[in-house]
């Protein structure tokens, strides 16, 4: 077994390109009165403090390799004033020029002719704007904005052209990093409902631009997005001095669609992404999705703004579990967790630790496509640009970082590819469904309090093949698709049902 620890020492394009540059916004991963802000709601307390004894449970990994676990502070400090400025910048403006007219938001209903079984007739956007907003959010997998946004959902906002001064609509980072729980929108929660393919296709069509063709698959299932391939495509269009190229460099990248992580995890992580290649201290990597439009000098001008936005990320905390918790069972689970799981995922409570370990593919066993999908040439090109100047990507890292588990109840589905719908399935690999329909919303009606995660509906291969509605088909998660396998992380298989239930109960408290 080899486990690696990261160290800290280490003119505008066409409309489709402008669309691509906006995906993911500032997250390659609210302040004020937002419930995730440190000053408003503390994390739920550890059930009984930090009293586990070393002999209470046996680690799945054996003795800790010397020098592997970082016992320093688990979370970075942040500047509250900078975090407040970062929040204001993030939710209050567009960094990109508009792609669609403002009227497209209301006109796109003209294309809603493929209603699913339970859907009513589309509301009139003029007569009933509130009902229309809800139908719009449901259709494209968007969520209510917990900040002023001109009546638009998170992920879409009014924007002003950098060249002409004209106004219109553009997406922002919250299209992927803005989710909801039971109707409450949250900035920084991964969007598990997003249908990016449907959204782009219909907005492109309503503006009379013909059939939209992407050079790669954006998503085959709602709630997943191929942000990595988008970023790779954009960096190939830039020279080392950030000047735009007419044709992209022949840089190899073959990345799959993925789950969207929560921003609040960045306060603990030393690496930005699941593959452990990029230092989380980097401000510039948060700006890379702007590469389709901005000029080199604009990137430099915006760097202090994104430094503040990074401080905002560090200020976030997860929402508390909203349902009852069996505290006695959770305490038993804590002891088991600290013995079996903490060497990768850290400890929690008054004095938390987080090891920041990247686990090699042979050990973790989860789908390898994301970890293997970036070529050395592409990473080297990134490192040669302004983006990699201070925090270059690791050329040799091939594995996955074991993430912190803060707020894990709210971040289902699980694994980097979102393949596993519940924590029970994470800890019991034979039970994992391989072909299933995801729920139609994040209402708690669809939340499984026992297994902790989202309820899904297993379907047959014949049912999927008989499906003729592309929008309905994108609710289906098919683990045979590239990058979406459910295997790996089998460490919980040896647990008894009682042990598994106890660990799950403890995870509700994080």
Low-confidence stretches: 1-72
- Characterize the biggest β-sheet: 3 strands, antiparallel
Number of strands: 12
- What percentage of amino acids are in beta strands? 5-15%
Q: Write out the strand line-up for the largest beta sheet, numbering strands in chain order.
A: 1-6-7
Order of helices and strands: EHHHHEEHEEHHHHHEHHHEHEEEEHHEH
Distance between the termini: 28 Å
Gyration radius over CA: 22 Å
Label the overall shape: globular
List the helices and strands and how they pair.
Blueprint: E1 3-5, H1 15-22, H2 80-92, H3 104-107, H4 129-140, E2 156-160, E3 167-171, H5 174-177, E4 178-181, E5 184-187, H6 196-206, H7 227-235, H8 296-315, H9 327-340, H10 342-345, E6 357-360, H11 361-364, H12 369-372, H13 376-384, E7 399-401, H14 423-426, E8 435-437, E9 447-448, E10 453-454, E11 457-458, H15 461-466, H16 470-473, E12 476-478, H17 497-507
Antiparallel strand pairs: 1-6, 2-3, 4-5, 6-7, 8-11, 8-12, 9-10
Protein name: Cytochrome c domain-containing protein
Keywords: Heme, Iron, Metal-binding
Domain Cytochrome c: 328-510
Key descriptive features of the protein:
510 residues; three-stranded antiparallel sheet; 12 strands; 28% helix; globular; iron; Cytochrome c domain-containing protein; metal-binding
């Amino acid at each position: 077994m080899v486990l690696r620890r990261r160290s800290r020492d280490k003119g505008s394009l066409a409309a489709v390109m402008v669309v691509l540059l906006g995906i993911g916004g500032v997250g390659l991963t609210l302040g004020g009165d937002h419930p995730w802000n440190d000053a408003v709601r503390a994390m739920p307390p550890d059930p009984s403090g930090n009293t586990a004894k070393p002999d209470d449970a046996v680690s799945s990994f054996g003795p800790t390799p010397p020098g592997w676990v970082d016992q320093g502070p688990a979370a970075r400090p942040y500047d509250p004033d900078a975090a407040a400025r970062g929040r204001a910048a993030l939710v209050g403006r567009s960094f990109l020029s508009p792609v669609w007219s403002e009227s497209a938001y209301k006109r796109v209903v003209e294309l809603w002719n493929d209603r699913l079984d339970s859907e009513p007739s589309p509301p009139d956007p003029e007569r009933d704007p509130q009902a229309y907003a809800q139908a719009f959010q449901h259709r494209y997998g968007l969520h209510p904005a917990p900040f002023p946004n001109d009546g638009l959902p998170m992920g879409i906002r009014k924007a002003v052209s950098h060249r002409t001064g004209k106004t219109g609509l553009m997406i922002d980072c919250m299209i992927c990093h803005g989710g909801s729980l039971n109707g409450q929108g949250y900035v920084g929660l991964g969007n598990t409902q997003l249908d990016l393919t449907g959204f782009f296709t219909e907005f492109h069509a309503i503006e009379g631009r013909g059939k939209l063709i992407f050079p790669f698959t954006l998503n085959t299932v709602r709630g997943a997005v191929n942000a990595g391939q988008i970023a790779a495509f954009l960096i190939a269009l830039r020279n080392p001095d950030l000047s735009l190229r007419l044709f992209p460099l022949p840089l190899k990248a073959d990345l799959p669609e993925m789950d969207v992580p929560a921003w609040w995890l960045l306060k603990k992580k030393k690496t930005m992404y699941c593959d452990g290649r990029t230092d989380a201290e980097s401000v510039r990597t948060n700006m890379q999705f702007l590469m389709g439009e901005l000029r080199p000098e604009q990137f430099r001008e915006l760097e202090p703004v994104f430094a503040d936005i990074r401080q905002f990320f560090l200020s976030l905390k997860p929402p508390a579990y909203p349902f009852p918790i069996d505290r006695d069972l959770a305490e038993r689970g804590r002891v088991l967790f600290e013995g079996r799981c903490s060497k990768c995922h850290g400890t929690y409570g008054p004095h938390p630790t987080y090891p920041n370990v990247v686990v090699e593919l042979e050990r973790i066993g989860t789908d390898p496509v994301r970890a293997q999908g970036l070529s050395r040439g592409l990473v080297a090109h990134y490192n040669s640009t302004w983006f990699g100047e201070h925090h270059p990507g690791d050329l040799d890292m091939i594995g996955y970082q074991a993430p912190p588990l803060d707020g894990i109840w709210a971040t289902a589905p699980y694994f980097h590819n979102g393949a596993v719908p519940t924590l029970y399935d994470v800890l019991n690999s034979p039970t994992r469904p391989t072909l299933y329909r995801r729920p139609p919303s994040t209402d708690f009606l669809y939340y499984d309090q026992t297994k902790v995660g989202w309820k899904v509906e297993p379907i047959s291969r014949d049912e999927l093949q008989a499906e003729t509605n592309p929008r309905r088909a994108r609710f289906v998660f098919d683990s045979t698709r590239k990058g979406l396998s459910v295997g790996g992380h089998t460490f919980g298989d040896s647990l008894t049902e009682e042990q598994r239930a106890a660990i799950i109960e403890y995870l509700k408290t994080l």
